[in-house]
Amino acid sequence: MHLYGTQTVNEKGHLAIGGVDVSELASQYGTPVMVYDTELFKKRANAFKKTFEDKGIKAQVAYASKAFSSIAIYQLAEQQGLSLDVVSGGELYTAVAAGFPRERIHFHGNNKSREEIIYAFEEKIGCMVVDNFLEIMLIKEIATERKQKMNVLIRVTPGVEAHTHDYITTGQEDSKFGFDLKNGQTDQAFNALHNHEYINFLGMHCHIGSQIFETDAFRFAAEVLMEKMVKWRETYQFICPVLNLGGGFGIRYTEEDQPLEPAVYVEEMAEVVKAMSEECEYPVPEIWIEPGRSLVGDAGTTIYSAGSTKEVPNVRTYVAVDGGMSDNIRPALYDAHYSSAAANRMNEPHDQQWTIAGKCCESGDKLVEKALLPNVETGDLIAIFCTGAYTYSMASNYNRLPRPAVVFAEKGQHQLVVRRETFEDLIKLDLPLQQLAKEIYE
Length: 442
Ligand code: PLP
Description:
Elements: E1 8-9, E2 15-17, E3 20-21, H1 22-29, E4 33-37, H2 38-54, E5 59-64, H3 71-79, E6 83-86, H4 89-97, E7 105-107, H5 114-122, E8 127-130, H6 133-146, E9 150-157, E10 160-164, E11 166-169, E12 179-180, H7 185-193, E13 199-205, E14 209-212, H8 216-236, E15 242-244, H9 262-280, E16 286-289, H10 293-296, E17 300-312, E18 316-321, H11 330-334, E19 340-342, E20 352-357, E21 366-373, E22 381-385, E23 405-410, E24 413-418, H12 423-426, H13 435-441
Parallel strand pairs: 4-23, 5-6, 5-16, 6-7, 7-8, 8-9, 9-12, 9-13, 10-14, 13-15, 15-16, 18-20
Antiparallel strand pairs: 1-2, 2-3, 4-17, 10-11, 17-18, 17-22, 19-22, 20-21, 23-24
The structure holds pyridoxal-5'-phosphate.
């Protein structure tokens, strides 16, 4: 069985994370509970940062906080010297509540509202990653009205799309995000922004995919963007100080996944950028990256309690847990695969095949198919590994299930960072039927 980060099996045969027995966490906070190994988060953050330092390249490593957004994780990111990528007013508000240094906040999104842009100006954030022509108009208008400067990057689609072990180069990229590099939109966006009195144009951003296990696609993207930067220097004598190559660094969900170390991705990017800078006598730009999943994905584990079981003879045996697609939509949404274990029976052979199902009213609410577990019984604890990214942040109250508690664990200590939702929380936005409506609908 593969254990992640600081995970161990303790003398009771229980899974421990950050030196804390998960059965203690389950007793104290209830289940489902999401447990983050903060040491692993820090290790990854430092690996990305240090590799840039070792290569002598100025960089910003921005935590792509869509992967898991909460005040405490933003504060942890801050402590590690990370920057922060937010994609909505809500994520920005969370960053503000966390006291995150505004100058290290980068604001993404393909449909930022006027209010969100004004909010970003009010908070004097570090950079807007501009996505489309409406946003260009709004930013220029708001900056001029407020007589306030804003740093901007433009998001571009460089014609490369990467997933796991493959990448494809595409001519015209069909994406809802950003400006196309090939059809001239990127030049148009550059021209609309780089000379503006209140715009400080920093350069380009791209994000080429997710769960990427190879480096060629990043190298290709870096090359394509550097070529464009060199052209802009030739044509407009303009030098871009920043190149943002996005996130997408893969993690190990199951044994089929073989991610690279953070250092490898960074080294290869740095190599291409440095080589091209040298060849074209272009000042080496600052490189920004935006890891999300690779910071929080395998650092997070969800602990559920086993409930009912059901055997479908000659087909499968189900064990149902006390959460499901409401706290982890990824298996139902895109057939994501996970590994699992019986967290209170770690030393027993995990040699029986189970389907771990959730408790939501959907046949498709299955968390792990073909999970190998012991002969689990009601009340056993089931750990699903690698659930730290795009799970809680995508969680819903489907079937009015309260969202789980989230806990950080490190060096034998633990801390609740998001409390479990209560039934009261579930109805706090509801309003009772009004008298008038009663008459109409009765
Ligand atoms: N940056 C951008 C613009 C993204 O859209 C995403 C994810 O969708 C990320 C960074 C983070 O990607 P990952 O979590 O795969 O590292």
